[in-house]
Fold this protein.
Amino acid sequence: MAKRNPNGGAAAPIPIRNGAPSDRPALTIKTDEKGRIFSHVRQKWLVETPEERVRQAYVVTLHNEYGFGLDQMDEELHVAGRGSAKARADVVLWRTAQDKVDSKAPLIVVECKADNITIQAADYAQGEAYALYCNAPFFVTHNNRETRFWRTRKEKMPGNVEEIENIPHADASDKDIQELIAKLKTFKEDEFADLLHSCHNVIRNREHLDPAAAFDEIAKVLFVKVWVEREMKAKRRRVNLFTADYLDEQLGTHPLNDLFQRTKEAFADDRIFGGDDRINVKPATGREIVRLLERYNLWARSR
């Protein structure tokens, strides 16, 4: 959150998209000494409540980091024609400004909560309901402690949402969006055992390790995946999955082990691994384990 200053603003970061600076001016959070915060979308000053601070900070993020223009956004939008004044979405985003003008279905609905509130299941249900009301395929539940991204399932009953790793950027193509849905998938408990079994079979058939040793190797790769994806997200990488292709881009004869050594350093305070621990499977076997795991988002479950 930007600190309040006499000019009512903060130093503007250079927005980066697709690896290059954007020519779109960056937004900043604006506050004044009257306890107000400026809404860039509505172009007016509002009372600076805790929830409003969260919303306006996220609007800045959506503009500067995801590339959405103010003309693609709305705030406090009625999303249900049921006579309820409370049925308002905090932030709504369209794929294009023209889609908004034409009252087409939006792309994303955002539900914000104050930082002192832990986001509960009811908040996910509310975000889903708002997204379904206006036919949006994605919704976000957000405060500065936690941001989670969701895909609605319009072909199923409410409650059948899928958590995903991210939302589309403003310039995402139809193909980009379909790939996001296809690739970014969080673990469900009933899938975890099956995945471990598949990984174990690969190590058993290729390396002939006993079950305990095979599990140790899988655990190492899981920790590498958590660390790499956490670093990608912290550096706001457009692609933030640890994949076999990403592994292929690394230098060295055993890049997975090199990444594991860096992972050990990151988790050193937890004392999970010994100083001499290393990846004890061949590079090709390690790559196959990474490939099996790559569609699954481990980072979201490690926070």
